Amino acid sequence: MKKLVVAAVLLAAPLAARADIGLRLGADATIAYHLPNQGTTVITETWPIGFDVMFSYWTPGQYLSFDAELAEQFFGSPQSSGSGRIGTVFRPGIRLSPPILPFYARVAVPINFEQPDGHQRERYDLRLGAGFNIPLVLFKIYIEGDADFPLGGNSGPGTPDTFAAWALVLNAGLDFRF
Prior knowledge:
By secondary structure, this protein is mainly beta. The chain is built from 2 helices and 10 strands; from the N terminus they run H-E-E-H-E-E-E-E-E-E-E-E. The chain has helices at 2-16, 43-46, and strands at 21-35, 39-42, 48-58, 64-75, 85-96, 103-108, 111-112, 123-135, 140-152, 166-177.
């Protein structure tokens, strides 16, 4: 009988552990970016903005989440030679959130499906970020700062080397947990 109780407890423990599903809705603005051949561009020149939706799976303990983010990016003030649409980005990643503190760190690998020049080619980046949450009753407000660096991909000639280009991004929005 003891073995049966121990086995039942061991089987029930993973089911009783709480793993939350999260949904984040937000917007981002690229504050500045640098390309080796073009120099540094700041937000007021083209107003690059984006809208993001992210689904998260929080592991038991609420310290680590596995994220899948989808973003659509635009130039708020497009250059005269092109459209205002930058492209679609998929960002799988993880977040590490220490207990009790409202701060977190995030690492993602953005996969850019389209480029500003309209070509359909993939490019992979590295996104390093940190942010904090303001907890409210039904949701949290988050503010996050990110740095993006190119890693590679099928980007064609003239693609910057890793860390030769960069972008600084500010994100904010609502974070729901279910």
